[in-house]
Model the fold of this input.
Amino acid sequence: MALAQSQRALAALLTDGDARARLRDDAAAFAREFSLTLTELEQARAIGGRGLDAYAGSLERKRASEAAHLLPLGARALGTAFYRAFAAYARRVPLAPAPGRDLRDALGFAREAAGLGECPAPLRELLDYEATWLRARASRVRLSLRRFDYPVSALAREVAAGGSADAVAPRRTRVLWLACAGRVRTLVW
Done:
């Protein structure tokens, strides 16, 4: 078997909880999926178990810390719930290929977390605000206009100062982002 196929199988085991489950539940199907020989399948199974789960967990924590770095206000506002929610997201969503995987991971998580009903409205809006800014920053040229039900600038200041997003009263706000040549200008009204 080619080295690339072995590496692809190992990468799947390290980054995709479903792949680990397929190896545990139906090793023969896993071997067919990755064109593994019997010897290679046994090697994959030997790697499996607690060691593989522990290493995969460390990769999930690394992904979460990178997302928290890109979404600092959302991470601060949610506290430990950010890391729990990201761990659940990382178990469902395999790591994207490079380049830009950290940005895609953070944006995917923010989109999912903002769509969850159990996330309070001010925090959903704060995550959406940060994600829209990230998309603008990653673009060479971009114009984005969004309407929010909360004053996102006040939310950002409150959370950055260590306060609670719940302390900010709702007020319709519009935000315009203009990205050009790696610089982002933001207008809030």
The radius of gyration is 20 Å. Residues 53-188 form one domain. The CA atoms of residues 14 and 55 lie 7 Å apart.
